[in-house]
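Hey, I was hoping to borrow your eyes for a little while. I'm sending you its amino acid sequence along with the backbone structure tokens. Take your time with it, there's no hurry, and the full record follows here.
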Amino acid sequence: MSKILFHLIKSLSSSEKRNFKSFAERQKRSTDKHYLLLFEHISKQENYNEEIVKQKFKGNNLPRAKNYLKEIILHSLQETNRNYCVAEKIHTHMNRAKVLLQRECSEEALKVLKIAKKKAIEYEFFEQVLAIIKIEKDIYETTNDYFSEKLVDKLYREQQEYLEKMQNLSGYWRLFKLIHGHHKKSRVLRSNIDKAKLQQIMAHKLLQNASSALSFTAKTYFYHTQSTYNLMNSNVELAYKNNKAHYELFEKNKEKAKLYPKKHWSTLYNYLTDCMLLEKYEELDIGIKKLKTIAQKDIYKKMPDVEATLFRQINILSINAYTNQNKFNEALALIPDIKKGLKKYAAIISKVHTMDLKYMMVYTYFACGKYPDALDVLEDLLSDNEKEVQKPLLGFARIFKLILLYELEQHNYFESQIGTAKRWLKYRHIFYEMEKVFFKEMEIIFTATSKREKKEKFTKLKETIIELQKNDEKERAVNNYFDFITWIDTHLTGKSYVELRKKKAEKQGKH
């Protein structure tokens, strides 16, 4: 109850808080004053502290107070939402039409239903469209004034059309949820079993062409499903193509973007993520400005946790873009604000997204040679609840820890941790071949006594990784988490990680 109440209060916009207070003032009795005080006290907390709340409201029935406060907040939101909740307005029109029909005011009932149907079609509420058609049929059955073969055919065709659209949308929803469910478990397809399962889903006839989607919402599911699958399959180009088409679908349908602001926002962010991965930095900069602009619009401000979402997305995009361009000092400069934001929005930002930011902080510290700072953040990352975190990131975080321990020359700790990392990955069946090679060679490198022997083993490790990644897209996916070849080269050449990354970029014609 406490966490739900805290999240509910922190998700309220400024206008929603004003509406709540106005609603609460109308509802409360003279003895209910402490409910508003409880609201104000929780509102001021950055992270929920149950002990402070108990001390502040000692002597009151706190569980009852929390429950009452939650109910009032929900009632105030329902009252506010009633003014713009289209589904509820359509439902009201339908009920009004039924009342008019009972009073034998058929003509007026049909006028009301016409308004409701237009709105239901606009919002693609196909179940409501079908329910409205059913009421229309009831009206025509009770009177012969409107009967004609043309009218009968019209209602039949409409019913079939929206039944087909509803089933089509339901099919796309199912396929999206199946793919999205796999994505929540693992961002990258590792096992052949998972790969085969997803290939079977993607072979469905609905996913072969966007033209099979019979509505705007169905098309959004089509593009979202395609982009998610291709990203999991390490095909960023195809993911980018579908996310861009998805984003452009919203841009071409401005009214739909207003109807579904959350989907519009997430589509833009997914598109920008692909721009970042494909190093399309001009598109990325334009998109980040767009993201900041729409966040200021009222319709987007009403979205829950918009401030925390903007913080998370801008920083994930920015720190990744800087590190991808080898601008590690710029990335390093972001870290203080990222730490503050993670603390401020700890109750709002998911574990998965928190891990993303922490991992990038680790990588930035590592690249700048700040190994103790990197290890501190990494230990914090690994201490979180593993069940809520994507397996690949946790797996690479454990390998990253071994690299940091090697750099810090923590011999005893390294030996125990390499066994832990191997068991963790083996238990979850998510080994890359490269990881197996890494563990094998690093155990030898760590125990090598001469520089010459270490150099030989590092050379062998480099050659093996290059060979593994040459013709295997899955093995190349590890580069999304860490540049193993460049790190190995630091030990073969004596040059810094940043220096080698910049030279590699120059050689590849990147700036």
Observations:
- The radius of gyration is 28 Å.
